[in-house]
Amino acid sequence: DYTSTKDPDLRVEMLKxxxxxxxxxxxxxxxSMGGYVxxxxxxxxxxxxxxxxxxxxxxxxxxxxxxxxxxxxxxIEIVHGWRDEIAPVENSLRFARIHRARLHILEAEHxxxxxxxxxxxxxxxxxxxxxxxxx
Length: 135
What we know:
Elements: H1 8-20, E1 26-31, H2 33-42, E2 48-54, E3 76-81, H3 89-99, E4 102-106, H4 119-133
Parallel strand pairs: 1-2, 2-3, 3-4
Helix pairs in contact: 1-2
């Protein structure tokens, strides 16, 4: 929980510091700014094996990382809503195309209220893949 600051890149630093005190591998999960934080931090943390991002805040003004050139996570899954009024779905399409991420676009808004029935199913399948890929 990084709600003590609204600065996305300070949150990235906080996540990096937290991971430095824990053994990997790491699986990151984040929504909106948390999705951005997960992706940005994964560029600088070794052994991130999976990222599950809901309506990630990508390609937005004021965020340091735009293109994620150092991202080396082998399994990235994004869930986004067609009616997202905060983080445009086109941004997740762009990211998924560049990084070959798994992408689900649902009939939902930014907070994904209209997709609460399917998100646990998608997340469960993601966690199952993570478990199967674990050494």
